[in-house]
Specification:
elongated; twelve-stranded antiparallel β-barrel; Lipocalin; single chain
Length: 318
Amino acid sequence: MQKTKAYLISIVGLNPVVFLSIIFLLLLIANSVRAQEFEPRSLGNLPLKSNFAIIGYGYSTGNVLLDPSISIENLDARVHGFAAGYLRTFNLFGKLAKVDAVLPYAFGDWTGNYEGIDTATSRTGFGDVRLRISVNLLGSPALNRSKYLSYDQKFILGISLQVIAPTGQYYSDKLMNLGSNRWTFRPQLGISQTLNKWLFEFYVGGWFFTQNSDFWGGNTLKQNPVGITKLHVIHSFPKAVWLAVDIGYGVGGATFVNGIKKDSHVSGIRFGLTAMVKIKKQHFLKLYVVTGARFEKGTDYDMLGVAYQFNWFANNTN
């Protein structure tokens, strides 16, 4: 057993104290998998032809809604979520662009009340695939790795569009599903400003939904857009460590079933802490915790999660 512990420590290049601290944080995962879509530093410039592979786990508890159109009262859930993702940078008309894909997988239990009917269920399976393209329009030129080393980030303006495809597990005779059986589009505009070791990011965006023509019981569900604003205050530390304080607010999203408006207007605020630690060359560990409250309808849950990131670069020094 002692040899196994020593071997694991040597793999990640950590001393025993840091390693045991990380294990302790992982054991605390009793609170979280969808962190109000908090993604601090997503505007940051990167060398061209950079590649990132990411795997993550989170545990959520509370009012965890997999589909934001469903308003369930007294919802109590325990959800384990896993995700695998890949990101690649490239040159788009002289601007830094990124494309990424995420495949989620989850299992958990839900109990609650929908329109006076008690409901309880368990689900295990894949969620909807997420694809996104991002472009930094100002302050973030497309640089090869050698030129990137002298780049000094100041102000950045960027846009992105994420498409969530209806590929996840879905049963039309069930109320709660891992997939949503509709397309979702998430445009976003962001600005970033660096001041010494501090980084400030602000985002505005929205969720836009197509209709679900095979909603629970063969009904048709439509949903108005949800508006989102987010703010990240990030501080950098030596050895590629940074810590972010996150806050987000969402409003809108009224739903209609067969043209009849439901009491499902979303309004809620979310707070988070995100930390990134370099554990070895090209190996990073991200830890995050999220909590918040809803003013009207929507999600209201606590979350704690961890993600491992590995990056590598193509030979693009020319």
